[in-house]
From TrEMBL:
Keywords, ordered alphabetically: GTP-binding, Membrane, Mitochondrion, Mitochondrion inner membrane, Nucleotide-binding, Ribosome biogenesis
Residue ranges of every copy of the OBG-type G domain listed in the record: 220-385
Stated name of the protein: Mitochondrial ribosome-associated GTPase 2
Lineage of source species: Eukaryota, Metazoa, Chordata, Craniata, Vertebrata
Membrane topology designation: Peripheral membrane protein
GO term, biological process aspect, one: ribosome biogenesis
Obg domain segment(s): 65-219
A single Gene Ontology CC term: mitochondrial inner membrane
Pfam families: GTP1_OBG, MMR_HSR1
Family listed: Belongs to the TRAFAC class OBG-HflX-like GTPase superfamily. OBG GTPase family.
Source taxon at top rank: Eukaryota
Length: 401
């Protein structure tokens, strides 16, 4: 028989626990052993509403979906193994001499251009090479650290500060980013006629440590150049399977996209949608230099202009000026002028004046309705064939996708 005073004290402890938080185990007392369960349920309901909501972090898989064209990486080569200091000893051979082996060398870190990698999103912020093993007895040398390969896209430029160290423009190109440290010497190395029992051994050296800047310059056959909202992304979606973001309101693409145009003879032409260039981009206005560097490796260009703009023919002159100020001779590469948005009534009325100023070779089309896309595909094929022939004549292998 539980006294009524103890019973009321137990229920009072439960109510106080629900109101003010958890109680010590001794305070949760009562008949029937149902009070602990009541306390746990009530306290769980209270803490559920008290915990602040936290923002979910992006997973590594979702982070790799974004196009990354610039990455700062800390690379540190592996440390060399220490040398051993020991002496040979066996029965009936008391003075066997020193037999400490050398340590293994640290592993190097190597950047390798891989055609299957299209972005720097898979490159981590820091890498450390494998360490070499220490030397052992009986003149056993330590094993050297394994090489660490970092796969980067084709077209990656390696910089240290403002100095360009390497340009990985072909598949399979390699660059030693950080060398591993040398292994230490064992006491066997210091054996000499005047020192028959050396006790000296040296430790392994640390690996080379560097901070490198990796910049990706998009490798594509053709590059679409134009001001923001000229319809470049819509045009790339119309001629290839690429899916850059498009919308009914004006905005600009933040990262380059590459689409592949397929032809009947199994040829593939890579077309890069470079983000919109604004006036003053050569002075790094906005993100001008980040956009312009993707056009350097394109063999020929597509100048996309908005035919519904007040003076669409003036856009071509401004675009060529920005390209020429960034790199001399860049605006003189083979190109074709594409007048987009011909489906609009005000744009079709400006077509005769555009061809009178820029020449009859300008292609008028509509990326939204697909009007006159065949003429652009045929002109794109002609420019690609000329580019391939020019590359073979110079003794260089043309880019293949």
């Amino acid at each position: 028989m539980v006294p009524s005073r103890l019973f009321l004290a137990g229920w009072q402890a439960v109510l106080e626990g629900v109101r003010h938080g958890p109680l010590p185990p001794r305070a949760v007392l009562g008949p029937g052993r149902l009070l602990p369960r009541l306390l746990s349920l009530s306290h769980a309901d209270c803490t559920k509403h008290q915990e602040p909501s936290r923002k979910k972090l992006l997973s590594e898989k979702k982070l790799k979906r974004h196009f990354v064209d610039c990455r700062r990486v800390l690379v540190c080569g592996g440390r060399g193994g220490d040398g051993a200091s020991c002496f040979h000893s066996e029965p009936r051979k008391e003075f066997g001499g020193p037999d400490g082996g050398d340590g293994g060398h640290g592993g190097d870190i190597i950047l390798r251009a891989d055609g299957q990698v299209k972005s720097l999103s898979s490159v981590l912020s820091q890498y450390r090479g494998f360490h070499g093993e220490d030397g052992g007895r009986k003149n056993c040398f330590g094993r050297s650290g394994a090489l660490l390969y970092i796969r980067v896209p084709v077209g990656t430029v390696v910089k240290e500060g403002n100095a360009v160290l390497a340009d990985l423009s072909c598949p399979g190109d390699e660059y030693i980013a950080a060398r591993g440290g040398a292994g230490g010497k064992g006491n066997r190395f210091f054996l000499a006629n005047d020192n028959r029992a050396p006790m000296t051994c040296t430790p392994g050296q640390p690996g080379q440590e560097r901070v490198l800047l990796l910049e990706l310059k998009t490798m594509a056959h053709a590059g679409m150049v134009g001001f923001p909202n000229a319809g470049k992304s819509s045009l790339l979606r119309a001629i290839s399977n690429a899916k850059p973001a498009v919308a009914a309101y004006p905005f600009t693409t933040l990262g380059p996209h590459v689409g592949i145009v397929h032809y009947e003879d199994h040829q593939q032409v890579a077309v890069a949608d470079v983000p919109g260039i604004i006036r003053g981009a050569h002075r790094n206005r906005g993100l001008g230099l980040a956009f312009l560097r993707h056009i350097e490796r394109c063999g020929f260009l597509l100048f996309v202009v908005d035919l519904s703009a007040p003076e669409p023919w003036a856009q071509v002159d401004h675009l060529k000026y920005e390209l020429e100020q960034y790199e001399e001779g860049l605006s003189e590469r083979p190109h074709v002028i594409v007048a987009n948005k011909i489906d609009l009534p005000e744009a079709r009325a400006k077509l005769p004046e555009l061809r009178a100023r820029l020449g009859p070779t300008a292609i008028a089309l509509s990326a939204a309705t697909g009007e006159n896309l065949e003429e652009l595909l045929l002109r794109l094929k002609e420019l690609h064939d000329r580019h391939v022939a020019a590359e073979l004549q110079r003794g260089r292998q043309p880019l293949r996708w």
